[in-house]
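On clarity, I found the account of how folds are encoded harder to follow than it need be. An entry of this sort, consisting of the sequence and the corresponding backbone structure tokens, reads as follows:
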Amino acid sequence: MKISDLGEKELIKRLLKRSQKFQSPPLFLNTFLDDKSFKSRSDDAALIDLGENYLVATSDMLMQSSHFPPQMTAHQIGKKVVTVNVSDVAAMGADTIGMIISMGLPSSMTLDYFDQLVEGILEACRDYGMVLIGGDTNESSELTLCGTCIGMVAKENVLMKEGIKPGDVVAVTGELGLAAAGFELLIHELEGSDENTFDEDFEENSEEEFNSNDNNSLDVFKNTAIKNALEPHARLEEGVLLGKTGYLTSATDITDGLLSEVGELMDANPGIGMKLHQSRIPMDPELFKLADALGKDPLELALSYGEDFELLLTVKKERFQELKKVVNEAFKGKVILHEIGMADSSGRISMIDKDKKTKILTARGYQHLTDSS
């Protein structure tokens, strides 16, 4: 059997199972580790007990061949390696302290490219309110970046995957599928497909709905989708605020696709299921037209593609409307919580479609270390 027969998520479970055997009970003899530290090993980031607070640590590795489209600039690559790590910290309700980045660099890389890469890293660190505090460099056959983000959260504010109760509201912090559409546009561009034909298909699907006074509607939406793909933004401020409310029962970030992340929450809460409503999945209306022009299913882009970097959360039912109001006021209407379903005790993912029929879904999304990746 090869590791590609399992895939990334099963490999992580295998690692954790073996780790449990070797580290428990000695794990609890360490002054800086407690029960939540132990549980956090399968969460978005590790928790280190500092008394009233947790130090939060996460690490992500990005490689040229797997993570960076050819159209992505060095500056954008630098920003992304920071963003993917910050997103995991945000999902724990924590704020940032600093970044450590180790770089595997091809010897053929130009100095200008390196400078732009570093500029992107430093700019993203500044945007997320932290500094670059260390790292390493080495030679590699392809550009490889491994980032570690350190954060801090008060113990009473920490968010984890565990804690869901039947009846909790399932929600996301923003629209889904736009980054997926951006990546499909980039693939479309690389394949050298006829741009005029694509534009005609898009405009034909949009003929009745486009504002006739806006001749740039197509270009604006395409640029927005591509920007979401190339320049993602982590919901750091939102995560910190959500943790402070005390209304959430779980949280994670959406990097591998909504269904995949729903599956992660269910794994952390045995017996819990999720009933989602197709009509409530937040998607930009233009996404449907763009997906049609690309020959893609818009719902698949929203459910299975990933790279949205929105937060997926469950909330105490009686607190959800109050939480929506808190978020709306804090971000002046620029961030909206979308209720997409409810947790139940079914142990499975179900989707109520537009015809009110219930379908049983599997947790699927992008995975590394699989034959299809």
Remarks:
- Residues 74-90 form the longest helix (17 residues).
- The chain is about 40% helix and 20% strand.
- Residues 206-215, 365-369 have pLDDT under 50 and may be disordered.
